[in-house]
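User: Structure please.
Assistant: Input sequence and predicted structure:
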Amino acid sequence: MSTKQPYLSSVSLSGYKSINGVSIKFVEGLNILIGKNAAGKSNFLTFLDKAINLNLDDIFHLNAKINFNNNSQLNKIDIKRGLRFNENKKDLSSFLNILINEETNLVSKEDVQEKKILPESVFIRHGIPPQYPFLNESVSFQIDSSNKLFVALPKIISNEQLPLFVRNMAFELSWKIVTIFFGKNSAKSISSLNQIVEDVFEYCKIVQKYLKNHTPISGFRLTEGFNISQKEDEFNVTNLIFEFEVDGLWYNYRDLSDGTKRLFHIISDVVSAKEYATKKHIFLIEEPELGIHPHQYFKLLKFLKQESRNFQIIITTHSPQSLNILENDELNRIVLVENKDNKTVLRHLTQEEQEKAIEYKKDNMYLSDYWLYSDLEN
């Protein structure tokens, strides 16, 4: 496999819950972290996401070393956070040091983000996003063209807790509004604003073909109830929300099954990153199998493996079925997660374990069988 974007080649993490002295190597493309409940998979993925995106305000003592492979060039990032005495040696204050490629000059979080030194980590947690603009809540916004002001959409764009798909959609809307309403040849009218909304919806429809192939969703559209009104130089857009077609009937997002919601979340974010995002991405996906029928889950795994040609995807799982997506020469993509003495330990299969796994497959069995009938989970 060959990824077009940077990928994590190795990490060493200490300082978050059960994650202390954890070191592991990754490969480009798909990586599968598998282990029992309470092994620390979620802790590891959460810490990794925080470290990559430098969202470290709630971790007061940490040490992280992250190595990225970027077109055969290795970028090394050292992150340290802790407490130290001030000059008077009486007061303690916190510090955050970020060292790039072992250079002596320390840089700030703002420098790293502005220069886009690190890719953005997209963390898709288990469950359904509590906030999902355009899906479980309608979006409305106001444009004051005389004062060149509009609100609501920038809040969606800047909220990193929201799914990437809706952030990108809000960005597309904002960009077109700024260009058409506030540009040199501005065209301020209800019809031009309606055209913007329709154009952005076309932007979203690229996701539809993937949904048809990998989910029960055969179509989705903006509700016919959205409205655009004008009063002098003020425009109001209200009730932008999607509807979904399943088995020939149209449903609100809230009426879909949890498994279908989950499939939409994962697929729409991954496709959005590939087709429209201006940033570099690494995907961290927590337990994608939850709430999904085994047949649908295998379709999802095939999708993720295919898309991992474009960027690195790291998933955690309880499901041995996840391993069946791998070929004999891809066993280095498996990472075992264990808990030893209340600490999370990550490791790859040994050469002997890989050879045993291949022997299982020669007998018309699956990697999931090897996992279930070997002592790996013990």
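The CA atoms of residues 84 and 314 lie 35 Å apart.
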